[in-house]
Write a structure and sequence with these properties.
about 190 residues, globular
Length: about 190
């Protein structure tokens, strides 16, 4: 099982994002504060969302919510991604998720090696943090499930790109569909689409 906390004597929020490598759609971030370690139940399956099947992520989502003191999501639009760049837009989405938490954390655990500091809350960046700490893994699942659901809704409007399958990632079919139909309003114009 992943480590519950970096320091068990403070309120930590794990933060991660989903959709950074996509050609289309918003970037979604989540911030999750888990209950104390002795109160955590049924999180033995939890690991980095990329190592879980879609079915496992959907099963874990309500379990994560049940095991959280607070959890929230934030996002950055396609326009913000194109204006700021994807890294800065990811940080903006994380800040928005932290803004929405019902309880203010004392420390942030950030997946990755860079972060724009959040006002008045210290942070630690952790490479492969979603494979190390439960709260970051929880945030990765919440962000991924939330974003996947958004892409499923957009698929109904733009079925040619098969976002129900690729969720906006640069698959062969997605790139071929962009060549055939051109980009739509949900494509990131600053990305090399084809």
């Amino acid at each position: 099982m992943l480590s519950p906390f970096l320091s068990p004597n403070r309120l930590e929020a794990g933060c991660d994002e989903a959709g950074r490598g996509c050609l289309a759609g918003i970037v979604v971030a989540a911030a999750v504060i888990l209950k104390p370690a002795n109160m955590l139940n049924d999180l033995y399956m939890l690991k980095d969302s990329k190592q879980l099947s879609e079915k496992q992520r959907l099963e874990l989502f309500p379990i994560i919510m049940d095991n959280s003191i607070a959890a929230a999501v934030g996002s950055a639009t396609v326009e913000e991604i194109d204006k700021l760049n994807i890294l800065k837009a990811s940080f903006l989405a994380m800040h928005r998720a932290i803004d929405k938490l019902d309880k203010k954390p004392e420390h942030l655990l950030i997946d990755g090696n860079r972060f724009n500091p959040y006002p008045n809350i210290s942070h630690t960046t952790i490479v492969k943090g979603d494979a190390t700490y439960l709260s970051i893994a929880a945030a990765s699942v919440v962000a991924k499930v939330t974003r996947d659901n958004i892409m499923l809704e957009l698929h109904a409007e733009f079925p040619a790109y098969r976002w129900n399958e690729n969720k906006g990632y640069p698959t062969k079919h997605h790139r071929e569909a962009i060549i055939k139909h051109g980009p739509c309003i949900h494509h990131r114009k600053s990305f090399r689409l084809v």
